Amino acid sequence: IFCGIHPYRWLHRNYQQVLALLFAVEEINRDPHLLPNISLGFHLYNTYHSDEKTLESSLRWLSGQDQPIPNYRVTSALSVQMGTILDLYRFPQISYGPFDAILSDKIQFPSLYQMAPKDTSLHQGVVHLMVYFEWNWIGLVVSDDMRGEKFLWEIRGEMVKKGVCVSFTEKIPVSERTQMESHKTFMPRIMTSSGKVIVVHGDTDSLMILRHSQVPIFQIEKVWIATSHWDITMRPLYSQGFAFHGALTFSYLTREIPGFKTFLKTVTPTKYPHDALLRGFWLSAFRCPNQPEYLEQELCSPNASLDTLPLGSFDMTMSGFSYTIYNTVYAVAWALHEISRRKSEKRSMVNEEYLVPYSWQLHSFLKKTQFTNNAGDQVFVDENRSSEAQYAIMNYVFFPNETDALVKVGQFLPKAQFSQDFAICEDAIVWGWWDAKVPSAVCSESCCPGFKKTPLEGQPTCCFDCSPCPEGEISSQKDVEHCTKCPEDEYPNKQREHCLPKVVTFLNVKESLGMTLAFMAVFFSLLTALVLGVFVKFQDTPIVKANNRTLSYTLLISLIFCFLCSLLFIGHPTTTTCLLQQTVFAVVFTMAVSSVLAKTIIVVLAFKGIRPGSRIRMFMDPRMSVYVVLICSGLQVIFCGIWLGTYPPFPEADTQSQYGHIILKCNEGSAFAFYCVLGYMALLALGSFSVAFLARNLPDTFNEAKFITFSMLVFCSVWITFLPTYQSTKGKAMVAVEIFSILASSAVLLGCIFIPKCYVILLKPERNTQRQIRNQ
């Protein structure tokens, strides 16, 4: 049970396992109900951390002689070679060491039982710790044996599930000869690796290389995570070598056995004078002179007690192995108790020797043994019913005064409910000499919100670059692999961390631009109405009569509606306003342009020499000008009707055109119909301009042909400029461009054709007479 490197070097903490055995035996022997009238005894054999010595001890026990029979030695795992030898004699073996699935093979090891709890969830607890502290770049150090390979395979699989990567893997040779050859380079290779968090798995025997490996003389920021099988405190003091200060270790979570600490405080060589092993332990632990007379005369630490030893030498808290040994002794006692009880029932005792069973008789009773120990835990010898191990997460702290301690900072309960299986107190952890905050163990620093991870070719998934999210996408969390698009009614902020609601925008009459355009529309419509009033009042004057009063009235009324129709483009778009915007604009503008066309035709025909009776003379009829307006306007009405009947305009919310805005506008519906309507008006305007241009030099009294030519030139220029400007603008500016074009072209017609006439009518009435016209 007691373990050491060789007979002259002690690992003092392991002696607690011997005392746990002694405590259990004495407790059982004092119990009047368990094995009454029978006292248990025991033999201790040292394994010396050597497979050969373990086998030798087993053979020495079996042969009962100093010289073991047979006289040869072999090498294999401790429990394996003991189980193989003992099974030859049907001796049951109960292993208190770490649970090993290999030893559960009852075909190969029918006489071997394991009392340790199962470690099938240990790797999950270790990875849970990594995920909690957001570590993803981890080094793994395992023993180079089957148990190490199994743990390596399990933890790698769990790390892949949780997105944690392995920075390096080191396998510790279990052969003592190989350890001595590699210990000089083993630790420096680990310390210079890129991984800042290192998981170490193996038992105290296989990890002896870590006790004596050479390490750098300077401190390097490393966090060690040790599993339950390795006693991390069994290292030389810091002054003698590297200490695992700040390490976290998973220890078996066990209940306290009543009376065990009190028992430890009373243990002295004087109490057990015949225990040579205790005498040797005492001399080494308390650094006494290696002379027996000091011990006998109690001159070496006369007031010594085990609770005064430092943690590296002895721990007063029962370890997981000691707890298992305690249960193992009780399991054997209960099996022997059941055997004696059954034999007592069958026949009366002839002598007490009859009650001593043969070794092979223990098997049928051991595998059925179950009991509740003094700590209140249910204990089963049957491995199929043994419990899953629970773990206390301990923090190893090494103080400047060369004392150390293990502080519980958390726990892992595999079978507990979700969110209750893992708990840790981050503030209670001492991380190391370098800093008090949680160390960072990542291959690449986290990508901040607004960025996404870009994998590096040939590198693990934990190694990446950070690139900004594309336009229109965000990432609100760290380390996202893909950015997400904002909803249609939202847009990313500048940092692309979250979405902001888009501003709803349209040409509002309450804004300065909308208010200005609306004012201009009303102003020009009133001005046009005023001009119409002037023409009506002075309708019998020569200047009004000379230019066809009906056409003048029609043109002025059309211009009034042209100015007013621009108001349909201002304000919140609705289904009604969208249907009326382009159609009303198209019809009234067509009426205005066709009126100008009719005026131009009459001017040309008035000065063209026409023979009496010619068919062309019929176009001089005043009603003919009305027909021209009606026909031209009627065709436009038909075009608009087809447009409304097939694919009419409709209101829409444009979320793409302008960043951060939702533009409420009217969609033309059929773009083809929209440009057909504009094209038809352009054709009429071009016709009016062409006819007026040909008649510009005719001897017109009031120069109306020249005014029409100039007005149509500006009119066409406005609308030619409108098309590219309209296509290149977005949002309410697009609507404003169309309104401005409507107002400008209408104002040109009003100003060029009617303002000169109003000037003569109102300011030069002497020129507005029949005599003046004849003189001219």
UniProtKB/TrEMBL annotation:
Coiled coil: none
Gene3D superfamilies: 3.40.50.2300, GPCR, family 3, nine cysteines domain
Membrane-spanning parts: 517-538, 550-571, 583-605, 626-644, 672-695, 707-727, 739-762
Highest taxon of the lineage: Eukaryota
InterPro entries in the cross-refs: ANF_lig-bd_rcpt (IPR001828), GPCR_3 (IPR000337), GPCR_3_9-Cys_dom (IPR011500), GPCR_3_9-Cys_sf (IPR038550), GPCR_3_C (IPR017978), GPCR_3_Ca_sens_rcpt-rel (IPR000068), GPCR_3_CS (IPR017979), GPCR_3_vmron_rcpt_2 (IPR004073)
One Pfam family matching this protein: 7tm_3
Boundaries of every G-protein coupled receptors family 3 profile domain copy: 513-776
Family that this chain belongs to: Belongs to the G-protein coupled receptor 3 family.
Name of the protein in its database record: G-protein coupled receptors family 3 profile domain-containing protein
Organism: Monodelphis domestica (Gray short-tailed opossum)
